[in-house]
Amino acid sequence: MSGKSIRLERIIDRETGRAFILPLDHGATMGPLPGLYSIKDTVAKAAAGGASAVLMHKGMVEAGHRGFGRDVGLILHLSAGSIYSASPDRKVIVSSVEEALRLGADAVSIHLNIGGESEPQMLEAAGKIAADCAGWGVPLLAMIYPKGKAAEDPDAAKTCVRTAAEIGADLVKIGYTGDPDSFREVTRGCPVPVVIAGGPDISSDRDLLTMVYDALGAGGAGISIGRRIFEHPDITGICSALSDIVFRKKSVDEAMRRLSP
């Protein structure tokens, strides 16, 4: 097995081929949101509920990943940008693949916006990171989103995920397209696993679980959901419910039993 394959098995369950990633990089953009004041506590609760990996910036690794609870994979996020930026859609690279390895990470992730003003710079940076990942045998997760003109194109998600795969990503994260038929087209055109983000229109736990169930049924390889989990009043419960769907292929009704009425 290659180094990438070995490390990917710490992110993607080898039995199901699916991943449950909890991204905790939001603090660098929006500050200490609820659930991010104690990264350690949140990671412990998510791990207890079955998350397979967590994603964070380099400064949080020592305080929030190792030395407690059930072990989970670590993805180091290399991109950052704040809500106060004059170009809020632009993210810059603030770490490196070598630094991720020194910190014990199993994979790295980058943020990519397609269709916005910053697209050329972000793609150039992504290409360099992908080359470093190939050289070191480190998996690359690309969080890719349509912006600007692309955000108005209902088929943009297909192009986004294919772009990520073409430049060397091993795993791609994108927002769910709203229905299984359209999302099936997204996954069908991407040769690497596709995981979904949390989505802006989720109003209940059932809606969240239904979205995940539908996405997986349409070829999705898992989830990378942040605020819907770390701001939840029962982090372990919602993670257990999501794990039932992601790894145990339970129905939405069965998964809902993990949560208090």
The main pleated sheet reads as:
8 strands, parallel
Shape: globular
Q: What's the order of the H and E elements?
A: HEHHEHEEEHEHEHEHEHEHHH
What is the tally of helical segments? 12
Distance between the termini: 46 Å
Rg computed from alpha carbons, rounded to a whole number of angstroms: 17 Å
Strand order of the largest sheet: 9-8-7-6-3-2-1-10
From the helix content, strand content and strand pairing, which structural class follows?
alpha/beta
Q: Stretches where pLDDT falls below 50 for ≥5 residues? A: none
Helix content: 25-40%
Q: Average pLDDT, to the nearest integer?
A: 93
3D architecture notes:
The radius of gyration is 17 Å and the shape is globular. The longest helix has 18 residues, at 119-136. It has an eight-stranded parallel β-sheet with strand order 9-8-7-6-3-2-1-10. It has a two-stranded antiparallel sheet with strand order 4-5. The protein is an alpha/beta fold. Helix 3 runs parallel beside helix 11 and helix 9 (205-217) packs parallel to helix 11. It has twelve helices and ten strands. Strand 2 (53-56), helix 4 (61-64) and strand 3 form a beta-alpha-beta unit. The termini are far apart. 39% of the residues lie in helices and 16% in strands. The chain has helices at residues 3-8, 27-30, 39-49, 61-64, 97-102, 119-136, 156-166, 180-188, 205-217, 227-230, 235-246, 252-256; strands at 19-23, 53-56, 73-77, 79-80, 92-93, 107-114, 140-146, 171-174, 194-196, 222-224.
